[in-house]
Predict the 3D structure of the following.
Amino acid sequence: MLGGSVALLLLSGCSTSSTGTTATGTPIPSASGPAWVVTTQGSATPSATVGGGATVTRSPFPSGFLPLPSYAATTPPTPTGSCTPNNGAGTISGATVVPGRTTATVTFFNPGGALLQQYRITAIDQDLVVGAQRDVGWTVVTPGTACAFQTVTITGLDPKTHYIFSVDAVWSQVGGRDGTNAATVARSGVVSTT
């Protein structure tokens, strides 16, 4: 009950009178009175110094964004030692890409394995576009020789476009379960078509 009385006393101090002042006598701003927000005319060009004497270092990139890295085509390394089949429990490896105008050749390591059913390779567009995004789709291939590199050509790409290429492997389920399991096993850096 005491809390309600205190709230009532506090709220009653916020009322206004019919004369345009608060209960404490301070005037209430009106539409014909001075502005509540004070602004000053400024310059659209930023100053080289900020208040307090700090200096501003201009970005070497005129757009304000970092440049995209460029990747040169490299020869895939030769596998050494023993080859352990990957049945879905591996890490994501690198994929080497040699771009063309509207195609790209993707090379990745195929560890093989009795449960490996297929590879699905896609190109993921890295260029920002307004509206609906173009879907390149998947290129599905049968696994080649185990413990060797496999090369696949992706078609239907746009010229002068940045892509990341992703390779997913599809395995049949272990232990007699129905269905399949898919996971990304290789991925490239950003590569630009010519």
